[in-house]
């Protein structure tokens, strides 16, 4: 198995180098001849195709847990092996301008998903109607705009860093939902203000402690308030999800209910109820600010996530990022953190056999969503040519041994610390 992993790692690195070289060299030879023709065709066509992607390799120094970019990924990187697993993405988008007021948009993306496969996924599929110049309504499959920059986090070229800060965006495994949104934009105090509301149902899955957690059919709704003035953008977000299905932690709930019945302990029944996620609501609160002017780029964001389900720990996260562009190069540095709060629930069962094993299992499950870490990020972006950016990045992740929610396949010796090195090439076309 170890040899197989090494072979795949070497193959990933070689493929990355080859594809990146081809992407750089081939367009350089044809761009001058074809760019004007393509531009004229796009201007005349009602149907436009756009694409984006990331060819990326990364390595995590820890052999005790797998680093992931967000909770939608079921397998991470570890053991110091270079891998293209977590960051390589390919997407395509089609825009069809039916009339002056109506546009159809479709987008498909191939990325590492909950089932360890890269089967292309329909991430956007909506109709957009501009009812008035300042008012629009969209219906269909929409991006999950739960936090600032969340709806573009798969487009690496749009991001300054190699990947969106995992401490901040990591818990957001939702990438889309099926529903409707409506927005209105008005000039306010020398800038532009936009207010948006959205509602619908999710159609996504992720991986829980034991199995795949299917959140399909979960109701989602929220509001977004944006304000732009000069180089500044400010945003406030609120979103909530009412889960349609349970996160599988069987047979623990049955064991707690049985023990509660035998001993007549209400606390055991309450502990079993705390493990239920079906028909519970999780609420996402976030705010953010972005500044971009004269080469200086800065971002600052914060979020808090509150869960009705006792199984999921409430958490808060934030990050600050600063970069300065000098010609084609933009060095950057960032600091992020993610911390959750333990529920402190107990079963009330006696610490004797056979109840001690139930107590241990309950405590272990209740700590599976614990996060307590911070990350120092240092990197540089090189805009090699229009629509192509090359990035190198180092993430120094420092947490405690109980911080298991942000990673996969943690071992008994996991100490919460790892160094992640990344090399990526982002492109749009």
What does this structure look like?
By secondary structure, the chain is of the alpha+beta class. The chain has one domain: Porin. It has 5 helices and 20 strands. The chain has helices at residues 2-44, 166-169, 252-263, 266-274, 355-366; strands at 47-60, 66-67, 89-97, 102-110, 121-132, 135-143, 176-188, 191-201, 205-207, 212-214, 219-229, 232-242, 281-293, 296-307, 314-324, 329-341, 372-385, 388-399, 407-408, 417-428. The strands form 3 sheets. The chain has a 16-stranded antiparallel β-barrel. It has a two-stranded antiparallel ribbon with strand order 2-19. Strands 9-10 form a two-stranded antiparallel sheet. A hairpin with a 2-residue loop joins strand 11 (219-229) and strand 12. Helix 3 packs antiparallel against helix 4 and helix 3 (252-263) packs across helix 5. The two termini are 38 Å apart.
Question: In summary, what is this structure?
Answer:
It is built from 5 helices and 20 strands. The protein has 429 residues and is an alpha+beta fold.
Relative helix content = 10-25%
| Order of the strands making up the biggest sheet | 1-3-4-5-6-7-8-11-12-13-14-15-16-17-18-20
Mean pLDDT: 90
The CATH superfamily turns out to be Porin
Terminal residue distance:
38 Å
Q: How many extended strands?
A: 20
Given as residue ranges, the uncertain stretches (5+ residues, pLDDT < 50) are: 1-42
The coarse overall form would be globular
- SS strand fraction: over 45%
Q: What is the CATH C-level name?
A: Mainly Beta
Count of folded domains: 1
CATH topology: Porin
Instruction: Give Rg in angstroms.
Output: 23 Å
* SSE ordering: HEEEEEEHEEEEEEHHEEEEHEEEE
Based on the structure given, which CATH architecture is correct?
Answer: Beta Barrel
Number of helical regions: 5
SS-based class? alpha+beta
């Amino acid at each position: 198995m170890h040899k197989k992993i090494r072979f795949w790692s070497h193959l990933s690195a070689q493929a990355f180098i080859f594809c990146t070289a081809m992407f750089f060299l081939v367009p350089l030879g044809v761009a001058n001849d074809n760019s004007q023709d393509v531009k004229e065709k796009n201007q005349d066509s009602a149907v436009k195709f756009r694409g984006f992607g990331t060819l990326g390799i990364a390595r995590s120094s820890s052999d005790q847990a797998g680093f992931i970019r967000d909770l939608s990924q079921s397998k991470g990187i570890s053991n110091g092996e270079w891998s293209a697993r977590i960051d390589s993405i390919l997407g395509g988008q089609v825009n069809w301008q039916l009339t002056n007021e109506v546009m159809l948009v479709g987008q498909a993306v191939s990325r590492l998903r909950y089932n360890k496969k890269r089967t292309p996924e329909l991430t956007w599929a909506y109709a957009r109607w501009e009812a008035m110049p300042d008012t629009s309504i969209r219906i269909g499959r929409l991006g999950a705009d739960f936090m600032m920059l969340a709806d573009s986090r798969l487009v690496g070229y749009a991001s300054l860093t190699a990947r969106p800060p995992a401490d901040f965006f990591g818990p957001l495994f939702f990438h889309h939902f099926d529903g409707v949104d409506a927005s209105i934009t008005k000039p306010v105090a020398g800038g532009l203000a936009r207010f948006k509301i959205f509602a619908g149902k999710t159609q996504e899955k992720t991986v829980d402690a034991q199995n795949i957690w299917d959140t399909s059919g979960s109701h989602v709704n929220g509001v977004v308030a944006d304000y732009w003035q000069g180089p500044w953008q400010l945003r406030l977000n609120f979103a909530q999800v009412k889960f349609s299905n349970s996160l599988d932690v069987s047979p623990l709930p049955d064991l707690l209910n049985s023990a509660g019945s035998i001993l007549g302990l209400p606390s055991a029944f309450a502990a079993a109820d705390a493990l239920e996620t079906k028909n519970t609501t999780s609420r996402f609160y976030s705010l953010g600010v972005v500044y971009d002017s004269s080469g200086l780029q800065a971002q600052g964001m914060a979020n808090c996530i509150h869960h009705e389900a006792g199984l999921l720990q409430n958490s808060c996260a934030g990050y600050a990022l600063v970069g300065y562009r000098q010609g084609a190069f933009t060095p950057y540095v960032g600091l992020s953190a993610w911390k959750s709060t333990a529920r402190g629930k107990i079963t009330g069962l006696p610490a004797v056999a056979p109840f001690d094993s139930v107590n241990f299992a309950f405590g272990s499950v209740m700590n599976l969503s614990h996060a307590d870490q911070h990350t120092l990020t240092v990197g540089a972006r090189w805009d090699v040519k229009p629509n192509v950016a090359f990035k190198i990045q180092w993430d120094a992740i420092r947490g405690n041994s109980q911080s298991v929610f942000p990673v996969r396949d943690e071992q008994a010796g996991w100490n919460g610390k790892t160094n992640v090195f990344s090399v990526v090439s982002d492109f749009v076309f």
